User: What shape does this take?
Amino acid sequence: MAGRFFFIKNDIMETDNKTNILCLDGGGSKGVYTLGVLKELETAAGRPLCEVFTLIYGTSTGSIIAAMLALGWRVDDIKKKYFELIPPIMGCYFSGKKTRKLRTLGKEIFGSNKFDKFKTGIGIIATNYETQKPLIFKNDAARAHGTVSSFVPGFGVTILDAVEASCAACPVFKKKKLKTENKEEITAIDGGFIANNPTLFALIDAKKALKLADDDIKVLSIGVGNYIERPLGPLHKFISWFEMGQIASRILVASSNTTEVVTKLLFPELSIVRINDTFNKEEQGTNMVEREVKKLNAMYKLGIESYAVHEKEILQTFNLK
Assistant: This one.
């Protein structure tokens, strides 16, 4: 399959010898920025993004968006769901309540569906809490890296379970217990602690597992924007729990930035478009648990603006002009 990836099970095939890969960062509520970029991209493409990208990878909030895109959702519908979900989830003051609310509302989106429902290749990034190693949920054995005989799509868990694992940003959310089909019971935490920007894992799959040549790979990597970081809660100066949350938020940002730098160093010849602009105005300040609708709308519009800045490069790279 060198140079060409066939995802035949769901009737998605790359026939022009190119593999388009979409990678979406984690960042909690700031994922609405990502949606602003994706809205313009979908409009330019004129079709669902699961028909544009052969592989879609996501971490944390990026895993939610990635999963919905890979199921065939349009961006407007994802945005509508995000604006319904974020205020009630982030409005909960304790990790247990946030986690339960995410589970309840997540069922409305994913139900009990498993990985056979995806229309394109998917990679959902989480972290194995016990081993401190990557835990990546995929839907095809071609990217199994030497464990093809024991491969089970998504380790046998539901899409919702995988997304919850990827979003388990302790201490903001609780750790996620998983009963997998081929790896027994696993405790997972947010994928952002190991790869908040999933691009490197996507490229490892493309080059090492699928054995694609550099010229066959096109990557669009989208962050959540960089902002002046606001405190996670009103008591953050007095309660260590909030301070831990602030540290966790910074770790996720550092993880994304590290991946971006390392990717450029390791793969200087690859066609990679990275969108993750910086916004330094005080009024643009936010954090990963933002729940104010006005702020969420502002971030979504910033995503649209970022797309405009990078539009020419995107259209040329992915032949959408």
Summary: The first helix runs from residue 31 to 45.
